[in-house]
């Protein structure tokens, strides 16, 4: 039962907009993160505090011992970055407005410069700043146990479950109690979380690209998770400087654009994302652990009811599920619903992981579902019960597209930007195909590894499309 204080309505957002008080969060990445004190009304809730018990990198902790940071600090960091960014954009917009006003009063104004300045005026207000920071704070409320591991499991079972949707549902749940946001404000935050422009907010699409950018992938979420994950896994330190990206940005005609001389910095960002996905986030060791955790959750479903919760979109029940389901399964190992799942978790603890057999790199001209074809072949060979597959793909943040071509750059302070107007030398280090997809094959039982590998080699030798199969010993 909720306490009276938890259900008490608070003053509306307008009452907080010009408060100067800030709260400071000690942080391993930034030293300190300063947020408006109003955000404590969202932070000090069961929905947000649950994030303390969700590891940001899921099963990566089993390979990188320091990678135990949580969604809590990531959301705080994203909110801080989003606030810094929109304040910078407001400052640049205010400068443009001042210059425009001065130039417009001169007897012979430069009309080209006047139009450039007019395009850079964005009319950002304190409400915009606060809503962007709320979106950054709440964008990952909807993650399940072991973060993307859970989402991959339920999506693989044919259940449509996206953490962004659940984040928005939980934001609504919080706001129903505290009533700080009006309905229109809440819907704007929802659009910011999803990276979709609110159609009622005409002329200012940039507000919906700061937390989650579906146009070119440059956003505050990425600034934080790449900085934080890089530090905690000790991978590619100082690979990019997100502060330079912020400093290079301004608004033009409602869109975020960047100084062309900072194109190498943005290239570092998208390249760093690719490398983190290829070498850290999707490494086959942690994918083996992820498969085992998913397998354990599936086997324990009659006792956990977690998958049922996702199928029914039961947000209230969902709040009780965190990474703590793993010790829960172990604690209840003597119950029939949990005993088989506990055995799999014991194998993780003793490093008896599912064996990585090999990988198929999907050819660029391959049509169809490669993972489904692999599973079908293994079933036909009688190996479906002892083999598992895992698809991984890594790109530069925009699927098969080159994100650099989707970023507006301006070559001169007093010139308007154009898409992809950057130093062409960067093209020499950007591939023509910007995404790679691979299917990893694993053996549940060590004694089945050789048979699975033999089946895959037979398949490779029988069809030229599968020449890109490599076993783990190659």
Task: State the gist of this model.
With 474 residues, the protein is of the alpha+beta class. It folds into two domains: 7-234, Orthogonal Bundle (Hypothetical protein af1432); 260-282 and 354-474, no CATH class.
Q: Describe it for me?
A:
- With 474 residues, the chain is α+β, with helices and mostly antiparallel strands.
- The protein is 46% helix and 11% strand.
- The protein has a four-stranded mixed beta sheet with strand order 3-4-7-8. Strands 6-9-5-10 form a four-stranded antiparallel beta sheet, sandwiched between helices.
- A hairpin with a 7-residue loop joins β7 and β8.
- α6 crosses α9 and α13 runs antiparallel to α18.
- The N terminus is likely disordered.
Which features characterize this protein?
474 residues; alpha+beta; Hypothetical protein af1432; 2 domains; 20 helices
Q: Name the helix and strand elements from N-terminus to C-terminus, one letter apiece.
A: HEEHHHHHHHHHHEEHHHHHHHEHEEEEHE
Broad CATH class of the largest domain: Mainly Alpha
* Radius of gyration of CA atoms, rounded to a whole number: 25 Å
Instruction: Supply the number of structural domains.
Output: 2
The total count of strands amounts to: 10
Note the overall shape: globular
Helix/strand class? alpha+beta
Largest sheet: 4 strands, mixed
> For the terminal residues, how far apart are their CA atoms?
59 Å
CATH fold assignment of the largest domain:
Hypothetical protein af1432
What is the correct CATH architecture of the largest domain? Orthogonal Bundle
Counted by DSSP, the helix tally is 20
Strand content: 5-15%
Share of residues in helices: 40-55%
Q: In CATH, what is the homologous superfamily of the largest domain? A: Hypothetical protein af1432
Mean pLDDT: 90
As residue ranges, the low-confidence spans are 1-6
Order of strands across the widest beta sheet?
3-4-7-8
